[in-house]
Design a protein that fits this description.
Blueprint (H helix, E strand, L loop, with lengths): L3 E10 L7 E11 L15 H8 L7 E6 L2 E2 L7 H7 L16 H10 L3
Antiparallel strand pairs: 1-2, 1-3, 3-4
Amino acid sequence: MFVLETKDLTYVYGAGTPFHKTAVNRVSVGIERGEFLGIIGHTGSGKSTFIQTLNGLLRPTSGTVLLNGKDIWAEPKKIRSVRFRVGMVFQYPEHQLFEETVLKDICFGPGNMG
């Protein structure tokens, strides 16, 4: 069984408007425990959007994201708990570091986990 899996995952920016843009189109992938996955592509190809759907920062327009076989959006009120299990780091550290010291930055995550 896959730890993390997508089935026909699609994300459309501006869905239902004349300005819609499909960023992720029907992606199906399974990731097993201990497996590493590299996602490559041109600028604007949907890499970041795809990753943001994996940990619930973005809700897919269609398709599913499964964590341990369960749809992460089955209970939207519990989506925050998904982010404790599926982490992400940004390509540019300056976009994720925002405290004035390294110590405060390191303490931010655990301090906000409750």
